[in-house]
Design goal:
- Keywords: ATP-binding, Nucleotide-binding.
- The chain is α/β, with parallel strands linked by helices.
- The chain folds into two domains: 3-204, P-loop containing nucleotide triphosphate hydrolases (Rossmann fold); 219-285, no CATH class.
- The chain has ten helices and 14 strands.
- The strands form three sheets. Strands 6-7-8-3-9-10 form a six-stranded mixed β-sheet, with helices on both faces. Strands 2-1-4-5 form a four-stranded antiparallel β-sheet, with helices on one face. It has a four-stranded antiparallel β-sheet with strand order 12-13-11-14, with helices on both faces.
- β1 (3-13) and β2 form a beta hairpin.
- It binds adenosine-5'-triphosphate.
């Protein structure tokens, strides 16, 4: 059971302070969501964990040992992102072979299956691939490498809806066949909500949320009713957001207890995307 720990990570690009003090840990056998508004530093964080960018301060530990400039530790971590590292005149089959050679124990059976279900021609040259097909090629690499930690930065970029659905199915299947850790940074929150078990929200250079997904959603409620009734119901609650339409007020509250059942209002659940919007709005207004 391996673990990645990020400790007091800081990254400044000149005057731009992107990460201020990021702390987290990724344990074995989880699917994590890494959420955050545009430009908060999700890609930067994943690139530092995979040693592609050096931090200004802080450390990334793999099983207690620094993973920064540590090839042995990095052999357990794979990052898929939107960058193209492969020569455009090479073929898909060449890319898979290269990745297979670099990481060893590549799952060729799964690669053949994925090429077939996504209809990706192994003989196609990289320069002839569409954006979505290029993403599919990179996803095949990410699912077939034998590593314990797979970091997926915007994994469905350019994929149409049926292919996104197919990818989520294949990811869950691969996870079931060989449990490992996936970290998914995405803006398509509702699409991944059903498969993740832990949520990180990065805001203002720090982790604003680091919580079990079910616990997070179970602690949030939407309270709707007349403004007076809603205000009375949420008076002692942690209110993230208020929205009034006509004479109905709707509020999102979090950290509520299981016994939160106020009278004269309607109380419902909150989906992950609405909660994310409310949380990041609250942070921006703080
Ligand atoms: N090499 C660099 N030099 C200067 N600034 C950089 C560099 N790389 C990233 N940044 C800046 O760091 C900030 C965080 O970028 P990053 O790509 O990590 O954000 P993100 O959360 O992944 O964003 P998005 O959701 O839009 O993809 C941005 O303001 C970006 O402009």
């Amino acid at each position: 059971m391996s673990v990645i720990e990020v400790q007091h990570l800081q990254k400044h690009f000149g005057q731009k302070r992107v990460l201020e003090d990021v702390n987290l840990s990724f344990a074995s056998g989880h699917i994590y969501a890494l959420l955050g508004r545009n430009g908060v530093g999700k890609s930067t964080l994943l690139s530092i964990i995979n040693n592609r960018v050096l931090p200004t301060a802080g450390d990334v530990l793999y099983d207690g040992v620094s993973a920064i400039e540590n090839e042995a530790a990095q052999a357990h971590i794979y990052l898929m992102n939107d960058l193209n590292y492969f020569p455009s005149d090479k073929r898909v089959s060449w890319v898979l072979k290269m990745v297979g050679m670099l990481y060893g124990d590549f799952d060729w059976q799964l690669a053949a299956h994925l090429q077939q279900v996504f209809k990706l021609d192994g003989q196609a040259k990289i320069r002839s691939l569409s954006t979505g097909q290029r993403t599919i090629m990179k996803l095949i690499c990410a699912l077939c490498v034998p590593v314990d930690f797979v970091l997926l930065d915007e994994p469905v970029l350019g994929l149409d809806a049926p292919n996104r659905e197919l990818f989520y199915q294949e990811l869950l299947q691969a996870y079931g066949d060989r449990p490992r850790t996936f970290v998914i940074a995405t803006h398509l929150i509702e699409e991944i909500a059903r498969m993740i078990d832990h949520v990180f929200v990065l805001a203002d250079g720090r982790m604003q949320v680091d919580q079990d997904a079910d616990a997070l959603l179970n602690s949030a409620r939407t309270v709707t009713g007349t403004p007076a009734a809603v205000e009375a119901a949420i008076a002692h609650q942690h209110v993230l957001r208020r929205q009034q339409v006509g004479n109905q007020l709707s509020a999102i509250v979090m950290d509520v207890s299981q016994t939160f059942q106020p009278a004269a209002v309607e109380v419902g659940g909150v989906d992950l995307q609405s909660l994310f919007i409310a949380l990041t709005e609250e942070q921006a207004n703080a």
